[in-house]
Amino acid sequence: MISLNIEKTFGFISKASVAAYEAQVKAAQEALENGTGKGNDFLGWLHLPSSISQEHLADLKATAQVMRDNCDVVIVAGIGGSYLGARAVIEALSNSFTWLQEKKNAPVMIYAGHNISEDYLYELTEFLKDKKFGVINISKSGTTTETALAFRLLKKQCENQRGKDMAKKVIVAITDAKKGAARITADKEGYKSFIIPDNVGGRFSVLTPVGLLPIAIAGFDIEKLVAGAADMEKACGVNVPFAENLAAQYAATRNELYKNGKKIEILVNFCPKLHYVSEWWKQLYGESEGKENKGIFPAAVDFSTDLHSMGQWIQEGERTIFETVISVEKVDHKLEVPSDEANLDGLNFLAGKRVDEVNKMAELGTQLAHVDGGVPNMRIIIEKLDEYNIGQLLYFFEIGCGISGYLLGVNPFNQPGVEAYKKNMFALLNKPGYEEESKAIQARL
Ligand code: PA5
User: Active site annotated at which positions (predicted)?
Assistant: First the structure.
């Protein structure tokens, strides 16, 4: 199982102060379990891993196979919780380079609908011109502008390029059971569709078809992913004692650090494949906790890359930060530093060592330096990057977020602040129904 080491926070906060959270954490866990806390209509993720049926997984795998049989490229159209989970898992598990090869055993996964860049969308449509491609249109509300716009372009191109019948086969919708434009389109066009349960919010939806279908199409084992999450669901259950409950410890420690002026949590990895796990985590914690003028700001860095950019700030900047490192114990491959007779680069002191040993020493050296520099440090230790371990990690962060949000006293399951930019954008674009806002905003320009 994944483990958590909080020892290197204790120079900054005391063991006793973390232990003192036991009762509050228990109350938060019970509120989640009994559905008595804020946002309790969005708790469908809580026991999701243990309740996913074999039939559901089989249905997802069968649809994934149709996409795999008929597509060289699959575009995941979605934004926020409707794409980050899939991308996080796929990139954590994928070879860094085989997607560049012509022949591969799974479609190339591409993402769209998460920005409104004309150049991005133009270049995407150009790239797809000679490709056998399919699209997964993912939107819980079914009305998100970024995704709807990209899907409009992709649907047209797919139909023109591949014909209406094939388009029907290779376009899948993942959306609400009844409402929203994505549902209306899917029903009218006869697309295969999956439902995002009402009680699962976007950023907690990675273990619904939102994440599972793209992950299965990319060739990864969704049963193992769900099994990892289900084991973590047990390990972080309401009846697991506080001292043994990773999510409870994580939530308590980060809240105590926050109370002591550490306002920014930096999620750190030493493996570039985890970049999108950090992006997913940033959304999960940022959108869940940043409200009522409070909340830890979730940031992320990829080390050692960012040690040569953000490393300076972390070492010596304002002391309002703490680090949470995702530490991967085992790598997949073996590569030793070769010996070189001339030793012009002076690297013979590393000859015969595994590259991973160098990386591990960078990790340890960085931890000690940052702690010395006044940065509390937690480590989440994960054995290796595979479906089972990533499944554990995802659920650990989800339950940790639910508990932590309740400790902070906010509703971790809504996102009222996200509407502000949309209202202004619609007013500026003269969307029907926004006439009053349009007038008001024009007066401000
Ligand atoms: O967590 C959330 O609820 C959001 O990030 C949504 O996932 C995001 O805004 C996309 O929404 P939708 O799936 O309705 O298009």
Answer: 287, 422
Domain parsing of the chain, residue ranges? 3-37+226-414, 48-220
Q: Measured from the CA of 147, which atom of ligand 1 is nearest?
A: 15
Is 422 a known active-site residue? yes
Ligand 1 in reach of 79 Cβ (< 6 A): yes
Question: Which residue among 82, 146, 418 has the greatest number of ligand 1 atoms within 8 angstroms of its CB, and so is best to mutate?
Answer: 82
In angstroms, the CA 128 to CA 420 distance is: 34
Q: Is 147 in the pocket of ligand 1 (CB under 6 A)?
A: yes
Which atom of ligand 1 lies at the shortest distance from residue 175's CA? 13
In CATH, 48-220 is 3.10.310.10: no
List the one residue out of 161, 168, 164 whose CA is nearest residue 66.
168
Query: pLDDT, tens digit, for every residue of 323-366?
Result: 999 999 999 999 999 999 999 999 999 999 999 999 999 999 99
Q: Whose CA is nearest to atom 2 of ligand 1?
A: 202
Residue type, 167: A
CATH assignment of 3-37+226-414, given 3.90.1170.50, 3.40.1690.10, 3.40.50.10490, 3.40.190.10? Answer: 3.40.50.10490
Exposed e or buried b per residue across 17-35, where buried means at least 16 C-beta atoms within 10 angstroms of its C-beta: bbeebeebbbebbebbeee
Residue nearest to atom 3 of ligand 1 (CA): 202
Q: Which of 388, 433, 420, 74 is nearest to 235 (CA)?
A: 388
Tens digits of residue pLDDT in 267-309? 999 999 999 999 999 999 999 999 999 999 999 999 999 999 9
